[in-house]
Amino acid sequence: MKTNICPYPGLRPFAEEEAIFFKGRDLHIRQIVKMLEQNKLAFITGASGDGKSSMVYAGVVPYIRAGFSKAEFNSWLIFDFKPQRNPLESLARNAAEEMKVSYDDTLAELRRGFSALVDIYKKSGYYVKDGKDAANRGKNLLIIADQFEEVFTMADNFRDGTPSPDSYTTVNLLLETIRISVEERLPVYVIFTMRSDYISQCTVFKDLPEFIAYSQFFVPQLKRTEILQVIEQPAVLAGGSVSSRLTEVLINNLNSGFDQLPVLQHALNLLWKAADNGNETLDLIHLAKIAGFPKEMLSRNELQEFNLWFARLPEHQKKYYEKPDLNNVLNAHAGTLYESAYDYYLNNANWVQKTITPEESKLIIETAFKSLTKTDDNRQVRNRCTINEITGIINKPNISNATVCAVLNIFRAQENTLLRPFSEPGNIETQYLSGDTFLDITHEALIRNWKMLAAWNKEELENIKEYNDYNTQVQRWLDNGRSPEFLLSPGNYSIFSDWYERCRPNQYWLLKNDNSQRPQKEKLQSAVSRMEKCDAYIQQSHEAIVAAEKARRRKVLGTLIGMLVFILMLSGLLIWALSQKSEADAQRELAEGNANAAKAAQAEAQKQAEAALHAKEEADKQRDRADDERKKALEAKTESDSARHLAELAQREADVMRDSALHNAEFAYNQKLAADSARHEAEEQMERAKQASDSAAKLYYVALCNTLAMKAKNSYEDKTLNLRLANTACQMNLKGGRNTINADLYDAMLFALEQNGIVHGQPLQTGTLKSFAVDADGRIIAISSDGVVSKHNILANGNIVPVQINEHFTAHAPLEKAVFVTPTLIAYSTKDRTSYVLDTYAKTHTHLPAHNDYIQAVSQSPDYKKFVVSYTNGVVDMLYMGSLDKPRASHDFGTQITDIYFRSDGEVYVLCHDGKLLKWNYNNDEVLTVLNSSADKNAFKMAPITDKNLLAICYNDGVVQFVDMTNDTPGEKMAGAHSKLDNMVYDPHTGILALSSADRRIALINTKDFKEKPLAIEEHSLSGMNAFVGGSGKVKCMGFNDKGVLFALTDDNMMHLWDTDPVTYARTLYAMQLEPLTQTEWDLILGREFSDK
Amino acid sequence: MKKHFGDILILTLIIWTGAVGYASAQNDSLPDIPLYDNAVSKDAPPSDTRGIINGMSEVNFFGDDELRNFYNYFAAGKYREAVESSKKINTSKFSKNQTQVFYRYAVAAYKEMEFNAEADSLARRFLEKDPLYQPVGYDPSSFREILENYYTIPKLSVWVSTAKNYIKTRLDTVYVTTIDTLQREPDYDYNAFSVQVGFEYHPIRFLSIAVAPTLTFYDYTRSSRRHEWATYYFKEKYSVLSLQLRVEAGWYRDNLFFAPSIYVGIQPKYVLRSRYVSYVELHRLIEDEPDYKSNTDVKNQFNYALFCGARLCFNHKKRFSYFVEASFSRDMLTINDSGKKYESTDAVFRDLYINDAYRIEEIIVMAGIKVNLKYSTVAKNGYGYNHK
User: Fold this and answer.
1) Any bridge partners for residue A230, and if so which?
2) Which residues in chain A (1049-1068) have CB-CB distances under 8 A to chain B?
3) B47 and chain A: CB distance < 8 Å anywhere?
């Protein structure tokens, strides 16, 4: 079996010596060389994985070395450099090496910038300006600045939009070199290769954009035929072959965009190995074996072969075959290497002591690849790193540089080439690298296609963000003098301690992430210092939180104990309360027993009361029998009286006989007198004629009296004129021979006296009066709405003055209704419908039985021992004066009651609002209808005319109905007024019945002669001249004193007094000794035809 | 529960409105007391000869034959006929003066006829029609006596008011921002005011119920210092429509110029609109404030508060009264919905900020004008005749 050279380099670029296998770019190479010839510069840009480096190293360089370009000399001096962490040093190192001069001198020279590089070339001996065989002795110079984007991606070179001085010097050197070579036609050429996404950042370098503008070459994508060449021709050149179906599958599965060629080259590299290093035709089964093609699409035989092969694979490798695809090949390869690294380490690294576990080997790989990648402006890029740094970040005593090298060697092996520098089998120098050797990922396609690495990269990015947050906290803590106030809170501690455990940061990790442009040593010192502070911060935060947690637990424990004690106390209290309740229950049962016993005793007492009642009934019967006996005795007395009467009749008969004898004697005497009589008859005829003449004169005076009375009721400017007219009318009345005064003259006198203020209403200064009474001494007893009881004297001049009372009586207030039962006994109701009796004599105040309504009327029995009270709800109670708090009899009449009258023991007249008059016998609770209700009338008041045994009832139409109380029959009716009668009061001393009506008038009916026209107190006496409808003047209450003076309380709170005997007022006028009317007044008022003579 | 919050709110409103309406209907209708059913007098109404009535010309005053007849009966002391005549009178077309005349003499006529309960009922009806009527000297004494037993208090009122809300935040959790701050606790600088319309109903004298839609505008700035040279600002403006449902106990006296009251209630809230802006102020350079963006979606759009307060109403018996009040309100939910906040993780990265979980407490100082639409009568000292 032959061993063929693998014509596919994998992820690494083609080397110059592999130019033969570099296919598909012939045209592009020529274009670049032509650009170099013209401009001395080719700025090759393209996407990552477009093959820029391969095109230079395996395309352009062999092309010009072969002499296909126009150049001054026949041979070439070519050196390349990658900017890495210092582009100037890198340039100097490679330039010195190629031109065989001292590195230090070269570096020092290059630091001067500008023409330094050209100067070195000119002095190097490779530039032969003239002379023999100069073309063969001289060498053209080609400088290749590969991966020029490292100027921007490496933080050492470019930070915060500013290039480092060495970067700036390097660019300056290269541009000046180009410019001088163009000017001086020197054979010096420069090629840049750079990822196109950094092109915009080139503007930071002066002049660079201008140079790029005329020499940029953007690497085009390969066409299908060119890709066909890339796949098939290298295999043929290496002695192998590729099946056309594999070619088709590869071309069809190749994605456009990033990583097109690296993925393909890597896959072809693995295919070559899978096909027994090209001894077999590269086919689909090989693609399936490298996890790039689904096995289901293989033929039966191939599938069988594949399954046998697949069964032998280790388990950890099989998972990569779940989603076979061309892009999965790199992922599967790298993943397999990751899983196999430990075994490779055990079997191949004999030069290192085996001190690590499989997990530690994975940790080394993870840490190394995390360190070798970074995210720059959301782009995942390579990050060169030394072995020392990786070892330091791992920071485990059992892991040395050698171990790190040994574990990572599998990725550096020539058959894998995922990391640079590559190792060679058997060459320990290439396997065991020194600590300061930089490692680098061969191609960024690995970062984008190895899923595990992408995840690590993301995790690392998170770690860096977390660190930034954490560092902010640490710095704040430090800025505040390490104050405990600024230590981490429990929540923050939880977050950051998790991160700390996960990331395990150390000084090397900090160093890796330090993007400052300070010297490496200084950075390391800073990282060490910062790490110490970070450790101290999290440690102290932990201690503070533990201390706080302990304090909180103590507090919770204290609270729990407190609650337990409280519950225990509460339980004790509950038990005590239950025991108290059971004791109380026992007490209650005992009380119930006692109550039952009391009830039994009460029943027994009731029985005894019934027995007593029975005994009383028996006693009543005995009394009735005694009455019968008394009646019999009376009958016997009557018989004896009859006998005595007979004796008296006999006596009278004897007297008649004697009188007859006397009569005969007188007859003679009478004959004598008859003669005398005839003589006197003539004299009498003359006397009658004289009387007729007197009578005519009296009638004249009466008429004159009436006219004067009428005139006296007019208003005059001189108010005494009213008095003089009334006085004159009185004189005429006397001259008219009348010893009584009629209603007109009475009214005229009242009017005149009122006009002159002699008779007038007077306010009682005791608040708004509700009611009043006149006592036996003629004093007024009044009660006001605020419950104050007051007494007033009437002076001789008629003025009313309050009497100083030592002991004030005050009722409950405010009053709604008050009625005087007697002058010392007042029944009243307050606004809230509670009723009382106030006895100012006995000084008692008694609550009446509750009826939740107002008192309407009261009346006392003739013997003053009982009284009845009616309420607005139609209930009438009979009460004993001694025990007012409970009714002895009660009756609900079911209708509105307006007045009541206690006629005699057992009989009460009840006047209903609808005009019905009832008689209630409270002894047997019988009700007798005396008067039926009238459909068009309402009755309001009644007044007993006791001396005539009549009951007067007044109605809303002004009619007064009399009822004979002897036999309860209706009697006379008379019109008391033309409107509603409000009040009625009877004076037994004078026989006057006073009636007040709604038209502001009081009629004074003389019950001795109902036919006599009643006197009347007209409206002017009640309310003055400013009367108005419904206004003042309405009589609220009336009363008489024993001298026949009428008292009336009007609703303007005025008390009026009138003498019902008109003679009194005539005397008053007479006593005033008024001037008689002058002739002029007489003539003006009465006329000249009238004369008082 | 949150899903059905809106339904519960609407149901509560319906029940509340229904209860108020029912209670109002119950109180509006006075007991229908029959007014004197007996036969009418056949007498023609007496002609009035007084000429002047209460300072007004009768010609200008009556303008209604029925009212004139009724008045003439009364003036003649024919109260029974006046009562009967009053029942034929339709007061719906009367002017205010005519209505006053009618009730003045109708009440007096019933009282003179000792239809006490009916007179009371009529007087109350009059006071409800003309609640601010003050008895004068020329009123019939019986009418005056009855009126003195009553006073009126507002029964149905409406008010408008405006308030300044003083906000205190109650932080439940302060979330760690992606970049921590120098401050342990954030500063909330709140500014808020509200406007309110209220409808108040007095079912009984000392108690009222009210429903008051309220619109409140909140505007706050949450500032936190990130570094010595940078301050993070989160500003938000949101408006909330709420509905106060309150029960109020008041102390109403006839002889007092003012009426104090206290109240408690619940206040469902709905966030109408919410907009925010966040930015960092660097190096003491104030950049232009960015545009506000909506974040209603992370709000607890439905919330509710419990509140209590006290009110002092001046001139409360008059048609127009005014009041001041102070109340304390506490939200029961946080202003933001924590669950929704975390769903929107992009907000965290975009704004570098997670809203704190906090609720607000408010002290609301309010002043307003109240219009009393309807009144009810209240008897003094337990006065009142029972109908027989």
Assistant:
1) none
2) 1051-1052
3) no
Residues 6+ apart with CB under 8 A from A594: none
Residue A76: partners with Cβ closer than 8 Å, 6 or more residues away? A64, A65, A139, A140, A141, A142
Q: Which residues in A848-938 belong to E strands, given as ranges? A: 855-860, 866-871, 875-880, 889-892, 897-904, 907-912, 917-921, 926-931
B183 interfacial to chain A (CB closer than 8 Å): no
Q: Which pair of tokens denotes residue A723?
A: 């008095």
Distance CA A656, CA A673 (A): 25
CA distances from A562 to A424, A575, A795 (A): 77, 20, 86
ipTM: 0.70
Characterize A629-657 residue by residue with b for buried, 16 or more Cβ atoms within 10 angstroms of its Cβ, and e for exposed: eeeeeeeeeeeeeeeeeeeeeeeeeeeee
E strand intervals along A751-814: 762-763, 769-774, 780-784, 788-794, 800-803, 809-810
| Residue whose entry in the numeric block shows the structure tokens 């921590």 | B180
The token pair that represents A57 in the structure block: 């190293």
Please determine, for residue B102, whether its predicted confidence score (pLDDT) is greater than 60: yes
Q: Cα(B27)–Cα(A1073) distance, rounded to whole angstroms? A: 70
Contact of A957 with A989, CB cutoff 8 Å: no
Q: Does B77 touch chain A (CB under 8 A)?
A: yes
- Residues A209, A215 contacting (CB under 8 angstroms): no
A645: amino acid identity, one letter: H
User: Across the interface, do A816 and B383 touch by the CB < 8 Å criterion?
Assistant: yes
Return the biggest CA–CA distance within chain A: 234
Sign of CA dihedral A567, A569, A571, A577: negative
- The residues spanned by each domain of chain A are 25-221, 327-449, 450-585, 696-764+1053-1093
Beta strand A41-46 pairing with A216-218: parallel
Interchain CB distance below 8 Å, B78 and A895: no
Q: Which positions of chain A have pLDDT values less than 70?
A: 1-4, 256-257, 377, 601, 605, 612, 626, 633, 636, 640, 643, 647, 650, 654, 660-661, 664-665, 668, 671, 675, 678, 682, 765, 806-808, 1023-1032, 1089-1093
0.95 exceeded by pTM: no
Chain A partners within 8 Å of B388 (Cβ): 872-874, 895-896
Which of A896, A998, A1028 has the CB atom closest to B54's CB atom? Answer: A1028
Q: How far is CA A912 from CA A305, A874, A957, A958, A1028, in A?
A: 130, 9, 16, 17, 31
Q: Which CATH superfamily is domain A25-221 in?
A: P-loop containing nucleotide triphosphate hydrolases (3.40.50.300)
CB atoms A1030 and B53 under 8 Å: no
Q: Is the minimum CB–CB distance between B29 and chain A shorter than 8 Å?
A: no
Q: Do A874 and B53 touch (CB under 8 A)?
A: no
- Say which residues have a Cβ less than 8 Å from residue A1077's Cβ, sequence separation at least 6: A724, A725, A728, A1085
- pLDDT tens readout for residues A251-302: 888 876 677 888 899 999 999 999 988 888 999 999 999 999 998 888 899 9
Distance from CA of B63 to the nearest CA of A (A): 19
Residue B210 tokens read as 């009210």
Cα A683-A685-A687 angle, rounded to 5 deg: 75
What CA–CA distances, in Å, run from A1081 to A703, A809, A1019, A1090, B321?
A: 18, 56, 28, 12, 66
**Sign of the C-alpha dihedral, residues A839, A845, A846, A847?**
positive
The shortest C-alpha distance from B6 to chain A (Å) reads 36
| Contact check, Cβ <8 Å, A956/B140 | no
Q: What was the pLDDT predicted at B21?
A: 46
Residue of chain B with shortest Cα separation from A1030: B140
Beta carbons within 10 angstroms of residue A345's beta carbon: 22
Residues sharing a CB contact under 8 Å with residue A360, sequence separation 6 or more, in sequence order: A396, A398, A399
Asked if B50 lies within 8 A of A956 by C-beta distance, the reply is no
